[in-house]
Design goal:
Elements: H1 10-20, H2 24-42, H3 52-90, H4 95-100, H5 106-115, H6 118-124, H7 134-162, E1 167-175, E2 181-189, E3 195-196, E4 202-203, E5 208-209, H8 215-241
Antiparallel strand pairs: 1-2, 2-5, 3-4
Helix pairs in contact: 2-3, 2-8, 3-5, 3-7, 3-8, 5-7, 6-7
Length: 246
Amino acid sequence: MFTYNAWVDEETFMDEMAKLHKLNPKLDVIDVLWHECNELKSDPNYKSYLPGEGRKWLLAELSGQIVALSLELSDDLAAVCSAYLESVAEKNKLVIEKIAKWKTGKGHAFYDSVANNAKKATQAVGLDDTSVTSSEQEELRQRFVRIKYMRTKFWKWYTGYKHGQYATPIALIVTKEDATQAQEWGLYLVPCPLKRDSKGKIHTEDRFINTVDNVDLFRNLAMECVSLSIQTRDRQYPKVFGHSLS
């Protein structure tokens, strides 16, 4: 380990920081939030001091955090894949510096690339495209396709909840196909700019996602991102630093 707040050997710093950089602790946080959601939904005695409405607001916030962390992990994965890939190609040990310089917008370009090219998807996780079959390459590409789909569909809610004030938890009364009504909790994107008419009305638009009933969907996204990041790190770290992680 290097000494904090002091001049240290650069290679040691890069090596130790790369070892410390892991995505799975964020998944551990998601699992805690996910467990809380399930307990609140299934056990009326769990946190019984909370009134009915209070429980639902807590559920909405917990589910919103799961959404945010899962989409955040998709960008973390892109940063890890890109940083290791660049360091291997450039024959340097600057992985953690490259990760630190990662900009959120770069994730979209990364997923556009790997979701549309099986060879690039294979290389992104540290595999030699000549050592795996075409079907295995396609399977990797499809994993990135699924992550890209989630990012494309839910990115606005993530940025609005995590980085802005325009995705807010709400309760919504929805009409089902059988004409019955039910209350759903989730995140609503406040329209910006608001659509106004000449009669002093605004249009609320269709900008709601039920996050409470879909926490498993986002937890699965997080699990996939962490799984790919671990596989990538295990393959690429020895190529960069010349020794195993242990």
